[in-house]
What does this fold into?
Amino acid sequence: MSFFNPFEHYHHHLAPPPKLKAIPEKAALPKPDAALLEMGQTELKTLLVNLKSTPEGLNVGESQNRLREQGPNEVVHEKPDPWYKQLFRNFKTPFTLLLMCLSVISFVTRDTAGGTVIAVIALVSVALGFFQEYRSSQAAEKLKAMVTNTATVLRPKEPASSEQLEEPIQNLVPGDVIHLAAGDMVPADVRLITCKDIFVSQAALTGESLPAEKSAVPSATPGVNPLEIPTLCFMGSNVLSGAATAVVLRTGAQTYLGSVAKAVVGQRVLTSFETGVNRFTVLMLRFMMVMVPLVFLINGFLKHNWFEAFMFAVAVAVGLTPEMLPMIVTVNLAKGALMMSRKKVIVKRLNSIQNFGAMDVLCTDKTGTLTQNKVALLKYVDSDSFKCDRTLKYAYLNSFFQTGLKNLLDVAVLAQADLEQKFKVEGNYKKVDEIPFDFTRRRMSVVVEEEGKKDILICKGALEEIFAVSGQVEVDGDLAPLDEDMRKDLRAITEDLNQDGLRVLAVAYKEGPPGRTDYTVKDETGLILLGYLAFLDPPKETTKEAITLLKNRGIAVKILTGDNATVTKSVCEKVGIDSEKILTGDQIQAMTDDQLAEATETCFVYAKLSPSQKELIVKAMHRKNHVVGFLGDGINDAPALRTSDVGISVDNAVDIAKESADIILLEQSLLVLADGVLEGRRVFGNIIKYIKMGASSNFGNTFSVLGSSIILPFLPMMPVQILIQNLLYDLSQTAIPLDRVDEEYLAKPRKWEIGYIARFMLFIGPISSIFDYSTFALMWFVFGANSPDKQSLFQTGWFVEGLLSQTLIVHLIRTSKIPFLQSWAAPALVMTTAGVMLIGLYFPFSPLAPKIGMVPLPPAYFGYLFLTLLSYWALTQVVKSWFIKKYGMQ
It folds into this structure.
């Protein structure tokens, strides 16, 4: 692992699929698989025999035997290495390898004491990095394991029958028979046995945004691309609409996704946080490439000892290296994830935590987030707004017989007591066919046969979508044309219901002779409007408080919903969201990208949206440089979840929503989310502290090293002394992940700005050089350390002053306030910094001092040291306060 990339500690292992994006174009797609193509065309009966399975699925015993033989249904993704690999990798860092080389050289040149000291430094560094990284990665993995996906598996119950059970997708094996419905992730590579109007999104595999229609009937013209075979569905795709049963063909690494997983892993888009850290490390690398050769050449030419100059330059390079950055980043992120988990927020992808804290716009649906997610059916009326049992009956039949994903409205209809007995559903009606819901039609239909006399197509959906396929309306048992005047009157009725905050669905039907078995969308024409269903989903009591809290923390809440504008406006007004301006899907479709981007700056509510329109809005906000979070739990939210900077879902969301999200809320509440945001900001704040400390300290030290190399007849510090000082300084910062962050810092989103870091380094860094040079003058003129035979005194004096001033700066940089008076660090950070300063004061008097070229310092030195540190503290505080006033606090 290079110290320039703190994210390399994630390596490829077996685990559940990661958040899915489209496979990059440069990823090597597998060659056509003859066996897979054949399984897509083979007769089902023969295929099941070959798989040693049945249409009712595998029994529990056989499934467990196959699971033991073939292993879990998991594909390669990014996961921490086992402990021994992490330990070995810590030994491979440039910092450690350099120390070991220096140690070997010291032993070869018979400097046993120096070699021992350097070896101890290396071992301490390795142990520290390994312990922190291993503990953090294990904690993060345990949190991610709390979020699991399941598949509906058929298990034989009696001869020719089966029962449906929920199994973790890792337990699936070839031969298992599963049920698929809208919202499900396809958990393995499967062959369809039966299906109805099933459409699958294969965007994660092909990059193609349009859904693919699948069929249980093999194509007459077999293709050469498995993804184009209609009878096959693949792990990594998801069901948009319809339902099916399927037999599992391949699992885990044998799946199509598994065969390209190595290409997928590592090709993900970097977050702004990762990009920022990488830019910082590149900045430091360039800085070192200039300064280290200069130090080497200056000391070599002026002091004529090229080996000593080389060792000194190498030690300076180590001192300039931000070798603690990987550990600081990892521990901060893992600690943040643990703290967030205590607040019911589970982090799936650690590096999304910073984006969570930087988020300045939160997009969310209305239902379940603003509202209680407990929908009640309040009214069922005819077209004249009178109570109508027939409207309820037809709605019940529609919800009862549909096999797709039942939403909250269906649940509310089915919750009506004794309706099944009242309408004698089982005895009098038999399901004939189903036309599943999709987000373009915004309606769904079920066809039932009534006592063998007639077929009834019952359609339930949004008002305008039902109007579009209806030609008549039933009024007092009679039929009337659904002309424009009638539509106007009917809209007025539903508008009144909407203004009361009620969501309205229309119910329509048409009758025909029995005997048909196949119905399609084309049959949804010439319907008769029967009546309406009115539902209430009241706002949560905590919603208004949460929205106010988010606003106060600099986060604008925007509602993106498929519901109509009137209902949405009613709910938004109750919870304090500005709904003066509402954009609908039709209006958005007519806008250019630039127009939509401008509109998102002033509009907070968007209604009647399709999934693709939600994604468009998120992209429009990106064009305005917003960090966008998206909270969603449905199939229609998946595109926007993937596009957002941080996708947020809930534990009871559909599979595709959870898989697309970076963060999972265990409770669907904006208050929970608001608490999690603060943890994201704390994580970012503590990482930035280390970066600012390292950048400014290294920049200042460079001026001191360069100047002293030119003016002094000896090295300003021995290489081993630089290494020890660097290690002690790093030790003082190990508690930064535990540090407090000022409330003022948490008050608004914080974005990564490399320009800010560079400015901070330029203004704060040189201050330390001023006092380094004052220490040089003190040692040279006051204490007489002005010749090669007195260099040990000079080097010891600068070692102590440099270590204490660098450690003291930790407290100055960690806060915008006055340290120790207005803001105290966490006890752990106070202890580590105080401990390192005490060690620095003791070092010249320790038994180890002579072995590393140090001598005891005269008592008068410490009086000057106190004045130096006090002056340094005061000047840095003044410059820092001016800097923050001018450039703000990052």
Q: What stands out?
A: DSSP finds 33 helices and 25 strands in the chain. Residues 192 and 733 are 58 Å apart (CA to CA). Residues 670-711 form the longest helix (42 residues). Confidence is low (pLDDT under 50) at residues 1-29, 262-269.
